[in-house]
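cron nightly-structures :: item 1 of 1
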Amino acid sequence: MHSSDPLLGRSPGRTLGLTLALVSAFAFGGSGTAAKPLIEAGLSPLHVVWLRVTGAAVVLLPLAYRHRDAVRRRPGLLIGFGLLAVAGVQACYFAAISRIPVGVALLIEYLGPPLLIGYVRFVQRRPISRGAAIGAGVAVAGLACVVEVWNGLSFDALGVLFALGAACCQVGYFVLADAGSRGERPVDPIAVSAYGLLIGSIVLTALTRPWEADWGRLGGDVVMNGHSLPALIPAAWMVLVATVLAYLTGVVAVQHLSPPVAGVVANLEAVVATMLAWVLLGEHLGLPQMAGGLLVLAGAFAAQASKPAAPAGADLAAAAASPAGAAGAGAGAGAATIPAGATALGERLARAAEAQTRRTRERGRERR
């Protein structure tokens, strides 16, 4: 049975969610490779970020207009996503790399998945997969090798604080993307992405003052690994692939997976970024970086493959949103787990039917 209801879509959509999460990680991973030639051509990093976010917001304006009812239904969610998941991550990261090495800032930012697991476990009090927790730790260890944090570690309190801010904003990305599918007024993930980028663009406009940039450089050429190409090519890739595609697939993926699993899979972005820099920018990988990339892959696989049992007495909605999904208590042994899984499925079906009836009534009132 097919349904667009998020409660029903999580278990059958786990494979789809994982696929979209991988697409999002690969798309996000290309942003640095596309941005670097533009920065080397004379645009400031913050102006490149503004170009990336604002260009994506303009592309998604038709979708934002189509889903304009989302502004009335969940305005707080959209504002929070724009401030944290778009403007917050970008601004904090670039502020951090102005004071501490890029590798250190990247490593600290990608402490987001462990922070996310802590948030879900201790603040939301939802069950966490042991595999997700172990996978997050392995992935962070791998990231330390990928960025070679030991080659340039320096301590600047404000720079580290900015990088931690980026990590916290990354937590907001996954939590708010997941929250969009919950409650009595769920919001389409496309609307979350479109309005998040639009709000983020407005905030970044105030911070970066783009009218001061020399945008004429986009009409010239840039150099990538010794080859000259039009600047509009990496600019278009950064906007359309590394932002539009990355945000759309990433938000939908979180609504099919749990936030912790999606967060760990997102760590693949660092591996993709390093590989693309090797191929397109001539920045060669060393043995520690290749070993670290394998650790990140292993950590992501361990997180997404785990299927923990739902704890006794846990809230059914929270259990449905955990990596256990439809597996529920079925991951354990014993006949007692079968009624628990059947009860959870029955309740989810009932809630889905109620939601569908409510939407039908709303459409009827709108036609009248």
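cron nightly-structures :: done
The beta strands are 221-224, 227-230.
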